[in-house]
Amino acid sequence: MINIGRTNQLEVIKEADFGWFLDGEDYGSILLSKKHAPEGVAIGDKVDVFIYFDADNQVVATTDTPIAQVGEWGLMKVEGINSVGAFANWGIKEKDLLIPFSEQRGRLSEGKTILVYVYTDKASGRIVGTTKFNKLLDKTPARYQRNEQVDLLIAERSDLGYKAIVNGQHWGMIFPSDVIGKLFVGKKLKGFIKQIREDGKIDLSLQKVGVAKMDDLSEKILSLLEKKGGFLPLSDKSTPEAIFAAFKTSKGTFKKSIGGLYKQGKISIEKDGIHLKSE
């Protein structure tokens, strides 16, 4: 089955002066122009191509990789505005992605970089974008567990912190006290459920919370010490940047973890760093 707006693997069935025709099943022969065809392609080969509608509403193929396919979010730059809506660069050279005015949460301006969700409009069949994410999210109850690892997409920044899309299904919030490293709109990363409030809203953390956080980090410290011959040039005096680079955690959490390992007699803390104690 051919999926419009997605990458498909199609068979080359015919050659023409201007390109190759691919087996599009119910859509018939789909053109892949020569400038997009892989080098050395031949009849019978199967090629990975992105399928979309061109300006003439014809189904065509390209080897360009879109920033986001149908059903995905992507960070895109607005290239122009007309009477229909805004057009964003989604990685396909021959055609920008339309974001109708009715799908804009606040008017977009040329040159602005925005997070966009790509979908197929049921009425017209066209591939379009939207910035109205509320209609896509929180349609089902959030049934996550505390410290459950989830996929996050940073969607907005506000005075409260960063709003993130959780597993492509729910809104969540990362408050400033839980921010580790650099966050920006469009960044994808792993995170953890901190809590689900009584009103259903989700608080997020970029590391495990509570005792689980400490235990997880302690294991990582011991594991890295073993790999590095029993020594790491990090201590409670190290910079937050150096600690984050090594363990993706805050300095405060790192200090508590090495303090716990020190009390357990598993490490010693010296001026040059931490040392693994032999059992």
Task: Provide a descriptive summary of the structure in words.
- This protein is mainly beta and 279 residues long.
- It has 4 domains: 7-62, Nucleic acid-binding proteins (OB fold (Dihydrolipoamide Acetyltransferase, E2P)); 73-134, OB fold (Dihydrolipoamide Acetyltransferase, E2P); 149-205, Nucleic acid-binding proteins (OB fold (Dihydrolipoamide Acetyltransferase, E2P)); 210-276, Winged helix-like DNA-binding domain superfamily/Winged helix DNA-binding domain (Arc Repressor Mutant, subunit A, Orthogonal Bundle).
- The chain is built from 3 helices and 18 strands.
- The protein has helices at 210-227, 240-247, 251-263; strands spanning 7-16, 19-23, 29-33, 46-53, 59-62, 73-81, 85-89, 97-100, 113-120, 127-130, 149-158, 161-166, 170-174, 188-196, 202-205, 231-232, 267-270, 273-276.
- The strands form 4 sheets. A 5-stranded mixed barrel has the order 1-2-3-5-4. A 5-stranded antiparallel beta sheet has the order 8-7-6-9-10, with no helix packed on it. The protein has a 5-stranded antiparallel beta sheet with strand order 13-12-11-14-15, with no helix packed on it.
- A hairpin with a 5-residue loop joins β2 and β3 (29-33).
Give the SSE map.
Layout: E1 7-16, E2 19-23, E3 29-33, E4 46-53, E5 59-62, E6 73-81, E7 85-89, E8 97-100, E9 113-120, E10 127-130, E11 149-158, E12 161-166, E13 170-174, E14 188-196, E15 202-205, H1 210-227, E16 231-232, H2 240-247, H3 251-263, E17 267-270, E18 273-276
Parallel strand pairs: 3-5
Antiparallel strand pairs: 1-2, 1-4, 2-3, 4-5, 6-7, 6-9, 7-8, 9-10, 11-12, 11-14, 12-13, 14-15, 16-18, 17-18
Helix pairs in contact: 1-3
GO molecular function: nucleic acid binding
InterPro entries: CvfB_fam, CvfB_S1_st, CvfB_WH, NA-bd_OB-fold, S1_domain, WH-like_DNA-bd_sf
Family: Belongs to the CvfB family.
